[in-house]
Amino acid sequence: MTMNLKQLRYFLAVVEVGNVTKASQNLYISQPAISNAIKQLEDYLDVQLLIRSHAKGVSLTEAGKDLAVKAKALLSYAEDVENQVRDLGQALSGELSIGCFVTLAPFLLPGLMKALKEQYPKVSLKVLEGNAEQLQAALMNGDIELALMYDLALNPSLDIKVKKVAPPYVVLPANHTLAQNEKVKLSELKDMPYILLDLPLSREYFLSIFDAADIIPNIFMRTGSYELVRSMVAAEQGYSVLAMRPQHATTYYGEGEVACVALQNPCADIAVVLAAVEGLRLSRKAEAFKEICSDLLALQG
């Protein structure tokens, strides 16, 4: 007996919904057929993959979690090989699942998707927007192949495919006395209300800039919305520190504008990266997307 793709598909179907009954309905396969396939997997690998409970359905053992990640990658690769052989001489096709840090998505995805459509019109993107913790979990679970995010506390099991430095800067109301300066020190702003972009890992990075300058920011507001931060600054309610610079000075608020001023304080730069799970083979679609990311980020400086 050997392990086969059908067994892995049945196993992942159960993992996805958490019970055999629902998986059998989704696949239009009998419950005994699915249970038998998973039992064969467990016998062949000599490990328990699922913990079965009548009340709670099934949960994964550590071995099951590991197999689920690798099985997703293997099935994706198998599909890629199948499409490649079937479509020799034809363009790439099918869906590619990626993730993008929520504040980066408006900056990067439109250009990337436009370039992808121009080069590979038969490839579609399924995008998960989330914070750093959510994206890293999705990568490790095999839900997405690639993720665009900041290089903040990255899981050591992740491999960086593309990298672009994004130096932090100060956001001020356009009419502020320091808005026309080439650079500004945090000490010049320490008494102003500070509006913190409050997302996991991002908040720690921005606050570390103040720590390095031995300054305690006067935090007026915390929000997970990038555009709300900018709108509050445009409304002259304070200032902020961000990493990606928009191409315009207007905000959703509609009144007033913001100015982006370089930060004079020495601080660790943050970088935008395209990450994947180390050691897992990327599909041809993912490799193509990686090349597009590399080209586009290089053009953006």
From TrEMBL:
InterPro entries: HTH-type_LysR_regulators, LysR_HTH_N, LysR_subst-bd, WH-like_DNA-bd_sf, WH_DNA-bd_sf. CDD domains: PBP2_PAO1_like. GO terms for molecular function: DNA binding; DNA-binding transcription factor activity. GO terms for cellular component: cytosol. Residues 3-61 form the HTH lysR-type domain. SUPFAM superfamilies: Periplasmic binding protein-like II, Winged helix' DNA-binding domain. Keywords: DNA-binding, Transcription, Transcription regulation. Belongs to the LysR transcriptional regulatory family. This is LysR family transcriptional regulator. It comes from Dasania phycosphaerae. The lineage of its organism: Bacteria, Pseudomonadati, Pseudomonadota, Gammaproteobacteria, Cellvibrionales.
